[in-house]
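Minutes, project check-in
Item: structure for the 93-residue chain
Input as provided by the requester:
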Amino acid sequence: MLSANECYTIFQKSIDDYHERDDVDTPIANPFAPGSLESLLYQKNWIDTVQWHYEDIIRDPNIDPVAALTLKRRIDASNQERTDMVEFIDSFF
């Protein structure tokens, strides 16, 4: 089982890795072994980080309505992916 400090380190790495490009379209490059708890936590936090940036983009009062609708659909898909990920991580516990 991972300690809280180990989880924090994984979360911080995910955030730091995202901010190397700071672009919601950057593909995830998960450094942890596929299927490991570390990998799942990294992926879940990556989703959260992208989601926060989606929310910042959609709040732009000058956003084009068509772009806003497209982004809203991406936010909805991201929310579902995050929910599925949380449920899967919960199964570890």
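Outcome recorded: Helices lie at 4-19, 37-58, 65-90.
No further action items on this chain.
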